[in-house]
Design goal:
With 313 residues, the protein is of the alpha/beta class. Helix content is 27%, strand content 16%.
């Protein structure tokens, strides 16, 4: 169901009549999955609340004009307005007046997030996801040494989506010993701390290039673009890999691959089993945020990831 905040007609008073505007208040991966929808709009302006901690990262990869929203005032003259799920418009009643508001979709039904946005339009083209890239660091390596990018992001709230460090370490040992891989670590400062023990492992430490916490997101996208393969949990870097055309392996535990999977055809998905957890597939529930041991994602075996990687290289 879609509803309208107000049936007031927008007026042409600021030259924006041929533009659409979108109010966005969700994660980076959500934004990437919204880009096919945004590409169907007329020169869209994206409004994101100024206090949103994801604002700078989204601005760095967005091909669309993003404006920081800090005051509630009438925004008239736009052809259409859309409030996407995740944006709290309660403090921006004047700004969002006349907007089409997307309620939180029922993702348990199997609906994909990209499709949830496209449903707001009566007619659309099925564009791929798309991001902006900022050139970073040129990685020179031997041609016989595949570059395998590793991401295992998510903040404390989403910690249950992470692949455990002990299993990840054993996986990297296999990739180095069997495939002669160069491991490229990416992520933010939190991920840099998570990855730190890997660089003390004598079997793999000389095969690791650690770029986690080193670059802003658009430059990290360029690092990913230079790799032969990405292995990642369900996080925004998996969607960035897909958007820049790199083959990837996505590890899905408590979240729905039917909602969150990359859409450009570059990703091989590995979905965990429940691991005996009665709350399995607990996305957007209290169980996910309070999960003590994420037993589900631990059912994804090292061998299954390794065989998928070998098959894609």
């Amino acid at each position: 169901m879609i509803y309208i905040i107000s049936d007031k007609q927008t007026t042409i008073d600021d030259g924006n009549y041929f533009m659409d505007c979108v109010f966005f208040g969700n994660g980076i991966g959500n934004f990437i999955l919204a880009t096919p929808f945004l590409q169907n709009l007329n020169n869209p302006i994206i409004f994101i609340e100024k206090t949103d901690p994801r604002l700078d990262a989204i601005k760095s990869i967005s091909k669309f004009n993003i404006i920081e929203l800090d005051t509630d005032k009438e925004l008239s003259g736009y052809r259409r307005k859309f409030v996407l799920w995740g944006f709290d418009h309660s403090n921006f009643r004047q700004a969002t007046n006349g907007a089409v508001v997307q309620p939180k979709p029922d993702f348990k039904s199997g609906l994909h997030e990209k499709d949830s946005y496209l449903q707001l339009l009566s007619d659309f083209k099925n564009y791929p996801t798309s991001i902006k890239i900022d050139p970073a660091w040129k990685m020179y390596h031997k041609s016989i040494e595949p570059l395998i990018c590793i991401a295992n992001g998510c903040n404390a709230k989403w910690a249950a989506k992470k692949y455990p460090l002990n299993l990840l370490e054993k996986l990297l040992e296999l990739l180095v010993s069997k495939l002669n891989a160069r491991i490229v670590l990416v992520g933010d400062k939190i991920d840099e701390h998570f990855f730190k023990p890997l660089k003390s492992n004598d079997q793999i430490k000389n095969h690791i290039w650690d770029f986690s916490g080193k670059f802003p997101l658009a430059k990290t996208a360029d690092i990913i673009r230079q790799c032969n393969l990405m292995i990642s949990n369900d996080t925004c870097l998996l969607h960035i890999s897909d958007a820049v055309g790199i083959k990837s392996i996505g590890l899905f535990g408590p979240t729905f691959w039917t909602k969150n999977s990359p859409v450009n055809g570059n990703c091989t998905l590995i979905q965990s089993s429940s691991g005996g957890c009665e709350h399995f597939k607990c996305l957007h529930s209290k169980h996910l945020y309070a999960c003590p041991n994420n037993v589900c994602i631990q059912t994804i075996t090292i061998d299954s990831i390794f065989e998928a990687a070998r098959g894609l290289l």
